[in-house]
Amino acid sequence: MLPSLDNYITYGAGMMRQNPTYLEIIVDIIQTIFTHERLGAMDRICGCKLAEAVMLNIRGGVDNYLKGFIEIPMQCLINPPTKLVKSYQLHLMEMVINCVYYNPAVTLQVLEQHGWTNKFFSLWFSNIDNFSRVHDKKLSIVAISALLQLRPEQIPTTIQPGWHRLLQGAVRLFETLPVAMKSM
Description:
- The protein is mostly helical.
- The protein has one domain (2-182).
- It has ten helices and no strands.
């Protein structure tokens, strides 16, 4: 079902902007994927990919849903019901990274409101070598670039001491990108 929905989002983004009911349906599907007790990690990875498609294709049109797109994966990362499968954990992190890329200031505000900022950045940068696909690396690079464009007053004081790690992470991603591109 994911390929069909991804196509609807990718090629129907204009229609979703014109008719918000369609976007609400997609967001409802994403929320259901994460809350239905019969669905597992593989299904939820599809939910992460669907949220990513929404944020990448309908830029500026999903502001009302951004908070949920941050809270859903962070709750799974912070309080997992069981041990998380590594690929599922990476996709959850990428869902938040997509939020950072989509709107870094709002994403940092939501993370701060919940006290998740340090936890997220620690998870992200301690797992940076696990982002092996070209897409993973490029997404992290553009998200870091978006963060670096923030004004100093938009950066929470809780993470200012470790802000230099953004550049270290970007350098690491750029160093490993050619290897990922060769293995495509």
